[in-house]
From TrEMBL:
It catalyses: shikimate + ATP = 3-phosphoshikimate + ADP + H(+). It is found in: Cytoplasm. Its EC number is 2.7.1.71. Monomer. The gene is aroK. Signal peptide: none annotated. Catalyzes the specific phosphorylation of the 3-hydroxyl group of shikimic acid using ATP as a cosubstrate. It is an enzyme of class 2 (transferase). Substrate binds at D43, G90, R143. It comes from the Bacteria. This is Shikimate kinase. GO terms for cellular component: cytosol. One of its GO terms (biological process) is chorismate biosynthetic process.
Length: 184
């Protein structure tokens, strides 16, 4: 894993990033249980803060306003001293402030899913704004670099959830082993 070692690994948040429908919430619930950490889900925090879903905010106030709120929600979650598992909003890797905070305070896992599978996964749940396949394709192409820059670990998230969780736990253990070996 790359990324800043300013904080001990065990103090860092584990943040799941990826496109809408990539499985951040689903994997986040299972990972938080295994790590015995709280789950901070961007969509849940957004609704608790505003009383509205992302889809409602985008429709009423525009996508830029939604993005501004999502940025604040992630920065708040990362500022919490208690290490958590965080399911971040899909967009946040495009925000330089978020990428900086992620590099400082988190181990970042990119749940990467091809567009065809994403589109069927996005059909579930009511909180998402609608996105057609061509728009999803263009968005992923544009955002690929941001995900790659932010991520310490990239997983093919077509795998079953328990395998994804095991891969994250393995990567965290390996990083812990390396930092123990490197300690003076
Ligand atoms: N590893 C997986 N294998 C198969 N289906 C999955 C997997 N992970 C998630 N799903 C399914 O994909 C759909 C979207 O998952 P989820 O809501 O967790 O995505 P998300 O990344 O949190 O989306 P959003 O960014 O919109 O909140 C759900 O129906 C979920 O059951
Ligand atoms: O991935 C995206 O582009 C988005 C994700 C959501 O969190 C919202 O920011 C919005 O619906 C756009
Ligand atoms: Mg989610």
């Amino acid at each position: 894993m790359s990324g800043s070692d300013e904080r001990e690994r065990s103090d860092r948040h584990v943040v799941l990033v990826g496109m809408m429908g990539a499985g951040k919430t689903t994997t986040g619930v299972a990972l938080a249980a295994r790590l015995d950490r709280p789950l901070r889900d961007g969509d849940v925090d957004l609704e608790a803060r505003t009383g509205h879903t992302g889809a409602e905010i985008a429709a009423a106030d525009g996508i830029d306003h939604l993005h501004h709120l999502e940025e604040e929600v992630l920065l708040d979650a990362l500022a919490d001293e208690r290490p958590a598992v965080v399911a971040a909003a899909g967009w946040v890797v495009e925000a330089p402030r978020c990428r900086e905070a992620l590099a400082d305070r988190a181990t970042v896992v990119w749940l990467d899913v091809p567009v065809g599978e994403l589109v069927s996964r996005m059909a579930t749940g009511a909180h998402r704004r609608p996105l057609d396949p061509d728009a999803a394709d263009a968005l992923l192409a544009r955002r690929q670099r941001c995900f790659a820059e932010a991520a310490d670990l990239r997983l093919d998230a077509r795998a079953p959830v328990d395998e994804l969780v095991a891969s994250v736990l393995d990567a965290l253990d390996e990083a812990d082993d390396r930092s123990t070996e490197e300690a003076p």
